[in-house]
Here is the input.
Amino acid sequence: MSILLTLINSFAILLIAFFFYKKYGTDYPKLYWISLILKVGGGCALGLVYLYYYSTSDTWTFFNEARLQANLAITNAGDYFHYLISNRYSDNVSHPFYLGDRNSILIKFISLLCLISGNNYWICAAYFSIISFACAWYLFVQIVNFSPSASLATAMPLFFFPSIIFWGSGVIKETFALAGIFLITSIFIRYVFNASIKWNHMMVGIVSLIVVWMLKYYWLAIYLGVFIPTAFTLFLYKKKRYTNSKLILIWINTLVVAGILITLIHPNFYLSRIFEVIVSNNESFLVASGAKNVINFYQLQPTWWSIALNSPWAVLSGLFRPFVWEASNLPAALASLENLILLALTISAVLNFKNYQHKESFMILLIYCVILCTFLALSTPNLGTLSRYRIGFLPFYIFAIVYQNPVIKYFAKQFRFFKE
Here is the structure.
């Protein structure tokens, strides 16, 4: 029976991939299939790494719990249905947007995949990967449709950077959270280029907002805090009623207002405790990690001054560490090589910034990346865990430093291979 289910699900996955290709992938056939294979391979690789390399992991913990619930569905469908619609987590925090147990949401979805796959982890990973790929590819299509010159800069972070493929394809929360961010960005791109936004786009956007909030609320909070002011300023720009200098001032003021509103939408963002949460998380990770593979900050305290003082080191570490000389094992060595490439591209982008067009777009992406990177690095000083969490901003950062970067002009001609 398990073999039959594996064959059926494998055929279903291929069928989904083929129909999605016919609708969105025919302009870049080689890129489509190569990227899809890399995505599915990334999801399986994550499972293998945590199965044989590490003793504990979220991905196998989630799957094993979901498998138990799937078995419950077979023995007692009523209890399983009650499990799906109920919230067994209790907390004394009372807030309309607060979710105490975000893991159970993902486990419920995995349990549905376990039911149809016969508790096959690798089939579940393939479904996660193809959902992630579809969202990334849809974003790629939206950008390329409106800006063909950005095809290489878009494809690089979405389909070719190892850490984004690895952490954005497996049976973990980041896979769906990043997929949701991609879909929200796709709708934003349509708004930027005055394309129609239909009811189905709105429905997808709402579902994406809910999914990202449930899984990675801090990603979404900072994302909206930067891009809502951008959308509002762009709306005013299209009306052509303000000068550029006034629009910049409006954007800054709206950003400040959005930042204040964000502090009200989740208890961990309250001004009275946000820095305490950051420092508390930092201390917990340091205790769990020991002295190795961590970011050491200078007397980190829950104060404005201490956070500001340590923020530059947080950004530098979040973007470029581990350095090559800090790698003590194979995963760290691979991550350090990727970070070395990021550093080289960053230096090239900075040196050539004066020649860039659309500098305002570059700065907006950079602001989002720096803010999220700062808070992630301060609260998650373990470099291994940070490499996973940072995929919430890494695709945007890579796009910003790669687009119009003279270093990659050589690869632009080779990229035509994927379109043939």
About this structure: The mean pLDDT is 88. The longest helix spans residues 199-239. Residues 272-420 form one domain.
